[in-house]
Amino acid sequence: MRNQFKSVLTEVNDLLYNEWAPIGFVGALPRDEYESYAIRIISMLAAGTNEAEIANYLATTGSSITGNPSSPQSVISVAHKLALFSESVQAIKPLTHHSSGTPNPYR
Question: 3-class SS at 99?
Answer without folding.
Answer: coil
